[in-house]
Design goal:
318 residues, mainly alpha
């Protein structure tokens, strides 16, 4: 690399850092003002509660407290974001109010559009009839995993049956999807109820093999098995990160064919791994033109820009 090329690269990195900082600062201001959802409640890959390079938990706690006090008397603000954070840290102070708001919402809305309430209700009101109603018609793996985490044995059995069926069909994308949903909602405890240790290691071995494969850069490949393997490889980083499959992460990180087709939302998952240089190189390679690395609008931050900024901050943190 020549001195000029090195200087250009350093300049771009400095521009990216300044741009990422401005994106994050603007997003934080939107959250402070109550004009954006608190990313803290969305979890990985956007925010890692164990500690994140771009922000810390104390900031979210303080903003949740501030927003709750400002908006608690407004009839059009249910404050689910704020309460999810507050009951996690101050359960004795906020659980009662959270249950009251869940009742008020339920009386007003019934079973309609309950997604924003699942996590909060599971934490402070697991006996609420909303879960009995959900049990009658779960629509996806996340809802089944939610019920399974609350002890619905038939949902545990159904998830296991779903997983083994997808395994038998070699539908690796859906195998990964089920495992990701189960772990995201119920952690290792729920994983262990759905799948045995030996079965999980067999799945891990499949994804370790998939991680080495160099597939054509065309997800419309006609052969069903090849199509399943391409989709499985593309999706397995989420499962590998959640389940801490370091061998799969290491193997996948060496697959240049795989990295040629990644999006910024994929790299957001990679930013949670130890492959910091890999993430930096990817972002430098696909970064916006310098003229686009400008201070963002104070009224809106796009999810793609936020994914860029978070990934870059993680990858360049010490």
């Amino acid at each position: 690399m020549t001195a000029d090329n090195s200087s250009d690269k350093d300049e771009l990195k400095n521009l990216l850092t300044a741009w990422a900082d401005s994106i994050i600062q603007s997003a934080k201001q939107l959250m402070i003002n109550g004009k954006a959802h608190l990313i803290a409640v969305s979890g990985m890959p956007w925010y890692c509660q164990e500690g994140d390079a771009w922000i810390d938990e104390s900031w979210f706690i303080n903003v949740a407290l501030s927003r709750y006090e400002r908006f608690k008397d407004l009839s059009d603000r249910w404050l689910t974001d704020e309460l999810e954070i507050l009951v996690r840290h101050f359960p004795s102070e906020y659980s009662k109010d959270a249950r009251l708001r869940i009742e008020q919402w339920y009386e007003k809305s019934g079973f309609h559009d309950p997604e924003d309430w699942w996590a909060l209700a599971r934490t402070v009101y697991p006996q609420h009839s909303i879960f009995q109603e959900l049990h009658e018609c779960p629509e996806n793996y996340s809802e089944r995993a939610l019920l399974a985490s609350l002890g619905y044995e038939d949902m545990i059995a159904e998830l296991r049956e779903n997983l083994l069926t997808e395994w038998e069909h070699r539908a690796w994308y859906w195998v990964s999807e089920i495992l990701s949903c189960v772990y995201s909602i119920g952690g290792a405890r729920l994983i262990n109820l759905v799948v045995s240790h030996d079965e999980l290691q067999q799945i891990r071995q499949v994804f370790l093999t998939l991680a080495d494969q160099e597939f054509p850069n065309d997800s419309s490949a006609p052969e069903l098995e090849l199509h399943n393997e391409i989709l499985g490889q593309a999706n397995c980083i989420r499962t590998a990160v959640r389940l801490d499959w370091q061998d799969v992460i290491d193997s996948l990180s060496k697959n240049q064919n795989y990295f040629a087709i990644l999006s910024i939302y994929d790299i957001l998952w990679w930013s949670l791994t130890d492959k910091k240089q890999l993430v930096q190189d990817f972002i430098v390679r696909i970064s916006p033109h310098k003229s686009r690395l400008e201070k963002p609008s104070s009224s809106h931050i796009g999810s793609e820009s936020m994914a860029f900024a978070i990934s870059w901050k993680r990858a360049t943190s010490i």
